[in-house]
Amino acid sequence: MTPPLWSQRAARLTIVVLALLLLIEGRLWVMQAVQGPAYLRLSEQNRLRDYVVPAPRGVLYDRKGRPLVTSRAAFTISVLPMEVREPARLAERLAPLVGLEPQEITARIAAGRQRPFEPVPLRRDADKAAVITIEEQRLDLPGVVVQAEPVRHYPLGTHAAHLVGYLGEITEEELRTRPGYRPGDLIGKTGIERTYDAVLRGHAGRLRVEVDAAGRPVRVLGREAARPGQSLVLAIDADLQAVAEQALGTQAGAVVAMDPRTGDVLALASHPAYAPALFAGGISAANWRRLIADRALPLLNRATEGTYEPGSVFKVVTGLAALAEGLATRDTVFHCTGALRLGRWVFRDLAAYGTVNFIRGTAVSCNVMFWTLGQAVGEARLYRYATMLGLGQPTGIDLPAEAAGLVPNAAWKQRVWKEPWYPGDTLNMSIGQGWVLVTPLQVARMMAAVATDGVLVRPRLVRRIVAPDGRVLAEPAPRIDGRLALPAAAVRTLREGLRAVVDGGTGAAAAVPGLAIAGKTGSAENPRGLPHAWFAGYAPADRPALVVVVFVEHGRRGGAAAAPIARAVFAAAAPTLLAATGEVSRP
Amino acid sequence: MRAAWTRDVDWPLVAATVLLAAYGVVVLVSATHGAPGAAALVRGRALHLAVGTVALLVAARLDYRRLAAAAPLLYAGALLALGAVLVVGDSRLGAQRWIALGPVGSVQPSELAKLVVIVTLARHLDAARTLPRLRALVPYAVHVAVPALLIVRQPDLGTALVLLAILAAMLYVAGARPVDLAAAAAGGAALLPLLWGALHDYQRRRLLAFLDPYADPLGAGYAIIQAKIAVGSGQLFGKGLFAGTQNVLRFIPEQHTDFIFTVVGEELGFVGATVLLGLYGVWIWRALAIAAGARDRLGGLMATGIGAMMGFHVVVNIGMTVGLLPVTGIPLPLLSYGGTSLLATLAATGLLLGIRARAWGARG
User: Fold this and answer.
1) pTM passes above 0.80
2) Which residues of B touch A28 (CB under 8 A)?
3) Helix, strand, coil % (nearest 5) of chain A?
4) Whole-complex ipTM
5) pLDDT per residue over A217-229, tens digit each?
6) Cβ-defined contact of A18 to B246 (cutoff 8 Å)
């Protein structure tokens, strides 16, 4: 008996359904047995996040081991672009918490899409309230991560701001030119932070975390600790730095204090300054605009990046050249009548000092005497001595963006002004006017060369590189860039003259009882306003251990504006100077 | 009599049902462990199993012919319940599919409507002896279309499609000419563009996501991609119960309901999935074998409808999980969480046992 139709058909239907099940079974075989390993990798990628653990930057210490710049723990709010589902909505919510415009946030997320698992920092050093709010709203903020990340701490406030410099997020340009950095990294932008960035930054660690579908960390699967950056022991003496800054006060200008024997820069002050802490967590757009729009140029390091007319400070070059070339001696007589005639022109001095020898003429800064000497030396030799003493070129200090200054000569004038060099130009140059431009640091180096009888030392800020555990990794020897072959008598005479400047001359205001100081004042006429005031000197005069250069923008008279600041620095250093050199006080 | 009843039991079907239900409990525990409210879900499953077992026993004892006699009443009741859903239903996940019944919890009438359609359509088809022409199929199509449209309105496209599959299978077994069925299917396909316009936005996104999940990997394509990753990464032997990272870390949405198969695939691997498919295969084979061996055409049609229903659910649910079919929200019977679905499946099992017992009883 044949089964009824419905029975046959039910049996056929069984085959159809079982065939479909077999088809699925085949698909499972392909997915699980054949492609299984690939899917396993995908599932690992899903759940594993490798976070970068930023390394604390090295500490900056002064020469006595006192911290100038340290790092402190802070929180950074970042987003993982891969996990952001609705950037626009997320940006709206995050904007008030991170202090950015929503458009800025969406732009950063979009920019980070190329590396979807790398956190894109939105706010460094976020305040606690923002961090707590984010943790509370975790579920509504997929892709947002909060990481502990050290930021710079400045225990001394604006102290030494220009020399330590500040940090900022790495730019596209810097990423291209500096290998080993990642987008979002903080990098030294100026000062020591920039020059020594590679030493200070350390090596970032990694943290492998298992996360759930909402991107919430579930557990840590592995970690590679961050290696902190190396620390630097600077040549700076924090006490002397403070004295220099305080003495400069509210005047725009710079103070350089340097050991002429080693090039150690003990103080490097520049005013006005800024608070580097403003940059610690990423500077706000408003603060940045305010800083760069400030006409007082607070970001300019006047000691190394500012170039100014040296005025009478340049007479050191003129005097040395004349003495060394045998065109004058200690006792050559000059008639300081108050004016010098050159062809149809009359060059007028500030005063008539009568008949003087080289020493007296230097002490009173007699222009007639230096014009006369300059005329004798001539443009070419003035240029040679100035450049020999390091003017017109960067000193090579370990700071970025150092200015070169300018020492003119006939060739330069022809090239730039298309004019021949006139005898009047030589007169101008011999008293530091005309086109001569120097940085206060260059002047310090020049004075150091005089103080050491011709050793051209390279100024430096870092004395030692120290590992996080305190081991000394490097202790570079002082760099000598040259030894000038100067007749001993010439240097002796010049130094006697400089000694007379402070001992009853124009630099009397720099005098510190018990400490023999030599120096030179300057009042540099300039086209931008009142003359700049200069003082450049060293002490103890016989065995110099400290050069001090003071520059006061529009300070008018070196003796009145700059010398007292130098006195403050010399006075602060006097005990050390006297103890170290065994100098006995002489009235 | 008692001895005869136990002799007439279809033991392979019972074994497959029990093992599938047990499998379901284990996988549910894994899918929900660590999640808030997991204990309540497991307790709920135990309660559903208890109620479902009662329903199974009642359905097995019930004479399916007397049940068919009540067809007009059942059909009216089902339409009333489906209509009520649209008026007083609970909204969950953007769809109105549940009716809250106080302490009993909530009921999903569309799940029960599938059974009602099977019983009433069997009776309807049983009355007609032949299906000579395409035109003759129209009344049966209408019979199914009315509840199906009410279900589409919820919206629950998946369950409505199950009804179409049941209709096709039962018409075929009832004797419809395959050429007519093919023509009807072609006609339906021609209507697809119209259907596209009637679809909800999310349904269109799902279909597009099926074609290219990576076009919107974090939106509509997300579930498909993550489900495939879960199943594929299980490889041959799985990552072990409770050890599926995709599951435990909640990368799969709806992992304890429509996407429960991902847990099986990830944690128990190809071997576990094959065992599961095998159990379903046994279940469906027994259902259609009971259809073939039924004493009368009515029982044969009912068993066919039940077997087709199970087959469609299993193929479509797992098919979407492994990326063979678009995502359609229908449960995997006996495994997915859902009280009404479990109750309906167990009641259907009871009906099958009853049909089988009466066929054997008649012969004996």
Assistant:
1) no
2) 231, 265, 270, 273-274, 277, 322
3) 40, 25, 35
4) 0.91
5) 777 777 788 899 9
6) no
